[in-house]
Amino acid sequence: MRRVIFNQKGGVGKSTITCNLAAISAVEGKRTLVIDLDVQGNSTQYLLGGKVSDSDRTIAHYFKDCLSLSLFGNNNNSGLENAIHETPFPNLYVIPSHPDLEPLQGRLESRFKIFKLKEGLDNLRGFDSIYIDTPPILNFYSQSALIAADKCLIPFDCDTFSRESLLTLMQTISEVKADHNQNLTIEGIVVNQFQKQANLPRQLVDQLIAEGLPVLSAMISPSVKVRESHSQAQPLVHYVPNHKLTDEYRALHAEIHGG
């Protein structure tokens, strides 16, 4: 199963949700891969703890190979499998981001490489679950992820401006589905930073539900433990396995997996 975590608004917790769901999947024994398509590399930092060296292969190297293959034919070092890194956590792997993603984008767009991520994943074997973290904008990389994925999770941070952009976002996803990926489904809206005692968040969520939007039942509370786990480069299931927030992520993972 391939899941993309996508929102065109920054700061809604895409990387945190991506890495924590993937970490729980790995703890449950599933061989799990995270692909970091955001040039900021937050998922890469979260799971690997340090910057990737210039000699390490990353998702940028895969896309560079996609460009060079058009000119020079097959390359034995061109598949996604060559960019996979082990994390310190059993069953959990990552294909890191890289700053070169930014300058590569124009060349990839002009050469119509929008399906190359899907092709690479179609040829990849050995993973039970794949999570794709995306940039907070609809660009070449986020579109590639939507084309390559089976399901899309949308983080929502209980902000009035987030609600205003949500319908536009869902329309964008529907257009990608219609034009490029008939199998793509919106799995649900993940309510993040949810303060259940506050009026505005509850009102916003109730409004989304009343409008028939696919709001997931499991919601994520705000906590300093998220920032601490980032600084320690340990997903919550490893950093604070018995914390309430970790249980909320377990509930979210169970919900999307039909548990």
Structure in words:
The structure is a single chain. The chain is of the alpha/beta class and 259 residues long. Helix content is 46%, strand content 13%. The protein has a single domain (2-256), classed as Rossmann fold, CATH 3.40.50. It has 11 helices and 7 strands. It has a 7-stranded mixed β-sheet with strand order 3-4-2-5-1-6-7, with helices on both faces. Helix 1 runs parallel beside helix 2 (42-48), helix 1 packs across helix 11 and helix 3 runs parallel beside helix 4 (101-110). The longest helix is centred in the middle third of the chain and has 21 residues, at 160-180. The model has no long low-confidence stretch (mean pLDDT 92).
